[in-house]
Amino acid sequence: MLFQAKATKHSIINEGNYEAKVSSIVFKPNETKPKSVLIGFKIQNHDDEVLKQVPASFESGAILRKDVEAILDRKLTDTEVYEGFDPNKLVGSDCLVVVMHKASAGGKKVPAVGLILPMPAAAVIEPVVPAVAQPAVLTMPVQVVAAMPQPAAAIVQPAVATIPVEAIAAIPHQAVAAVPQQVAA
Q: 163 forms bridges with which residues in the sheet?
């Protein structure tokens, strides 16, 4: 007899942070007297819904209440807290989720949502105005400039020569390496 693993339909999602959309709310064991709530999330480019199961408590500090506020990205009003909030209103909402792996009852690794975070506001990127650029130059002794194949590219002063950076590429490597250099910007 040969033992063989069953082929999996797809791979398990990696642990990490993902943008997600609330895709389902399921009350366990039933909607009239739930003991827990399963919040399902759809993550782009992943086939399966990833779940988070929390106790069905809406008291201050309860996980479900904190998760609802994270999805809504705001504190719940007193009216929502004390007169009732329908979690089904969350379906379709965007948020960030932290996916982790946990062992199922059979020991198989399954993805689960460990943390729900509000979706960050779109970043506003201010245009960067560059400072007035000064041409970069290389300063070196006149003797080296005299050995260059294109000495006309340099502005020769009494003891040093100033060479535009663009002209440096034409300098033979050996001539430059033999002389101590000082770069000014």
A: 138
Number of domains in the chain: 2
Residues 38 and 80 in one domain: yes
Distance between CA atoms of 130 and 38, rounded to whole angstroms?
51
100 and 155 in a common domain: no
Separation of first and last alpha carbons in the chain: 77
Residue 66 above 50 pLDDT?
yes
Q: What is the pLDDT of residues 68-123, one digit of tens each?
A: 999 999 999 999 989 988 999 999 999 999 999 999 888 889 999 999 999 887 64
For residue 167, give the nearest of 144, 180, 148 by alpha carbon. Answer: 148
Q: How far apart, in Å, are the Cα atoms of 104 and each of 2, 63, 136? A: 25, 21, 63
pTM value is 0.60
Look up the domain containing 172 and give its range: 137-184
In the DSSP assignment, the letter for residue 54 is E
Beta-carbon neighbour count of residue 37 at 10 Å? Answer: 22
Do 150 and 72 have their domain in common? no
